[in-house]
Amino acid sequence: MTVGELYAELEKRIPRALSCDWDNDGLMCCPDPDAEVRRVLVALDVTGDTVRRAIDGGYDLIVSHHPMIFRPLRALETGNYVAKRAIDLARAGVSVMSFHTRLDAVEGGVNDTLANLLGLRDVTPFGDGIGRVGTLDNAYTLCKFAENVKSVTGAPAVLCADAGRAVKRVALLGGSGSDDVPAAIAAGADTYLTGELAYHWLADAREAGINLLAAGHFHTENPVCATLRRMLTEIEPTLAVDLFDSNRAELIS
In angstroms, what CA-CA distances link 104 with 45, 48, 67, 92, 98? Predict the structure, then answer.
């Protein structure tokens, strides 16, 4: 299967129509759309480490969640680290496909993957359709639920603001979710999980009447990489697909 053919198949499953207007994703780097794809590296981010792993490992394609190029580049020159990644990949003949907010929103994407890991039932979209809200089989204390979040995401820590409510109806949005706290409240959630939260929401959680948890941008979104690997092998079973941990942040206590 060629780069162009594989991208067309992924677009059927993760349609561009679901992308936010401000987003920039899709085929980020494509030295040759007719090149055969045999080995694929899946990562949340196209970092310098991801690029080196792809080139040194002989991969034909990187599939990522976060766009390799998000802000416009004024020039392709090696003094800019984003441009250097594109130059190095193009020289090596490695293509890059990124699926950002459309992968957040699509059924079975970032947020459905997280909801499934947490055991939510009757899951539906909330707010602008990207986040998900559902119900746990049993009510939990916030501390117990936070431990479960750590377990399923691999997060080293979870920042919590306790509103004094049992955790039963949970809204979630992987990544940066401060703007969706009001929508989570409107959806009837007693608890809202995301990757990053603004300080004032954490300070006001009790008065707002909703438990809040921030488990890290990377850790709330990275589980979708396994979903992408499964999708790729369903499209073309002969593909060799590997996961790469692009996170380099550490919690030092």
Answer: 14, 24, 13, 30, 12
